[in-house]
Amino acid sequence: MAGPGKRITSSLGILLGAITATALLCGGVLLVMSPGRVARTTVTALEVPTYFFSGAYDYTVNHDMSEQYLRQLDAPVKGFYLFTESAHSPIFEEPDKVARIIKDDVFNGTNALADAS
User: pLDDT for 19-45, tens place per residue?
Assistant: First the structure.
């Protein structure tokens, strides 16, 4: 279980529901947080490039809160991408934009296309 201020190290770190997350998938291991804990206060640093995809019309995970969390998160490369035509599933709602970001930024470990970092 991840503790407060826990630094996550892995070749892959993916936050599930960045703001209200109750789980973190890290290097193929699912870390489940105790009830009432949220990622933004439990996971404060990642030692891997970190990318957040947020839909402008997502009423499950607020994009402003996601961007704020990314700004406070310590990571070597960070990218926040706002999908203006999407709700909760940008990968399905704007697949061409997702593919371009993955190809140009994620695969290269950069954040050139990011709306914020």
Answer: 344 344 455 455 555 555 566 667 788
pLDDT of residue 117: 86
SS3 71: helix
Q: What is the pLDDT of residue 43?
A: 77
Q: Report how far residue 50's alpha carbon sits from residue 59's, in angstroms, rounded to the nearest whole number.
A: 22
Look up residue 1 and give its amino acid. Answer: M
d(CA 31, CA 72): 21
Single pTM value for the model: 0.72
Pairing of strands 29-32, 43-46: unpaired
Handedness of CA 5, 30, 40, 70 (dihedral sign): positive
